[in-house]
Amino acid sequence: MKLRKSQIDMSTASQLLAKASDDLNAAAELTPKERQRDNAGYHLSQAVEKILKFLLEISGVIYPRDGKNGHNIDFLIFLVSDNTKIALTDDHIDLAQLDVYGSGSRYDYVAEDERVDLVKVAKKCSSLYNLALREYGKIAAR
Description:
By secondary structure, the protein is an all-alpha fold. It has helices at about 10-30, 35-60, 65-70, 75-85, 90-95, 120-140. Helix 1 packs antiparallel against helix 2, helix 1 (about 10-30) packs antiparallel against helix 6 (about 120-140) and helix 2 (about 35-60) runs parallel beside helix 4 (about 75-85).
């Protein structure tokens, strides 16, 4: 399976990062509202998915855009860890727990025993976003 692209699409990369920022902002607004916690978790999972795809895009790695693995944070983390030189921390890897808030949570509530501490997770998401910004800066400096 070919994992490398011949050319990096900076337009796609920039859009992914901008949309991730929008998702982080939406999650920040929703997290304090108890009835919106699943929606906040959904936006955090979307942000992480887009940030990971951004990291893959700027690294020239082919990644699934949709389908089961295209929305699987754990799988995207594996791709970044295994196919790029970008060092994810344990906190970043821990974001795979957001898979429970994936697209299925738009229709059903997340079970109480599967919920995560969204305030703590949001800090980890911000850390991943800052890593992406640093990687973007490296490219812009070239």
